[in-house]
Amino acid sequence: MRSRSSFAPIARLTCVEIPRQPALLLLTTTLILFIGLLPYLITHNLGEAGKLVRDSSLAVLFLGSLLLAVPSACNAVSSEIRRGTAGAILSKPIGRIRFLAAKYTGVSTVMLVFTGMASLATLMSDRAASRDFHVGQEILIPLYLAVAGAYILAALINFTTRRPFSSTAFWSMALLIPIAFVWTCFLDGLPSSSADLLHAGHTHAAPSGNAPIPIRWTLLPACFLIILAALMIQALALLCALRLGVVASLSLCTGFFLMGLMSDYLLADRMAEGELWARLTYTLLPNWQHFWMADALTGGGTVPWSYVGQAAGYAFTWTAGLLCVALALFDRMEVR
């Protein structure tokens, strides 16, 4: 019974410990603010308003999942093995499988919180860039206020209660960014000044800023697919963290990431020739193209939720297989 009840405390402690790393807070803040600044940085539309901002936001979300997964997994597993904390925990009536599963659950929870915040920032940036920039720029103000407010709130709590600043700021952003998104739902993106109205009235046609800017809810399936990919990356990072440090794990995960992106290009001809090693490699490598659906949104396209369900089956199967390998490896490791 004690072993059964140990899963939740270990997972909860992992959720508490990982956001305390200043590097994770800095990287999370940088990625979210960069997504929020994309409408300022990208002014070309290539025939479709907001396309470059939308594609770039999804790319930042995808790459950010890799950059956050490896340090989080290493902090949760390899650092505890090196310090002897894992050995002290495993000396209690706690199985290794339960310990590693709880670690993956805790790290994945933090990853889901980050991807959730980044997905909301992506929706706001896409809405701000869906028309001429001077029309929708006020939609991004609540996002900036949420990030700034999280830091101010964390500073006040740290000063009064001595709670860790990094974790408090991280969880404060997780609370304030959804509130900021709800706030933006009530903003129509109309011209907010006489200068904007004058700019919109230069043409004889009705100005594009006179109608409310809708939220592109079709982005949600694309964001959900990247969240599934983030869980796969987290399982790979956890496997690497059992034996390697941060730099080596990041290098290996980056290699798998690039190989998975290019697997169709590199192995398609070999598979057509019937080579067994190519088919085996293609099966084992994660095909990240299944989760990158930014091109499907071009021209008002959509990603069916039925496809998301099929991709989820692929992601969970690949993740479960990789976790089984990690559990088998960890079960045979000598932990002091």
Structure description:
- The protein has 14 helices and no strands.
- The protein is mainly α and 336 residues long.
- It has one domain.
- Mean pLDDT is 79; it is low at 190-209.
Key features of this structure:
72% helix; 14 helices; 336 residues; mainly alpha
Helix run count: 14
How many domains in all? 1
SSE-based structural type: mainly alpha
Total beta strands: 0
Order of helices and strands: HHHHHHHHHHHHHH
Main pleated sheet? none
Terminus-to-terminus distance: 25 Å
Radius of gyration: 22 Å
Strand content: under 5%
- What share of the residues lie within helices? over 70%
Low-confidence stretches: 190-209
- Average of pLDDT: 79
- What's the shape? flat
Write a compact overview of the structure shown:
This protein has 14 helices and no strands. It is mostly helical.
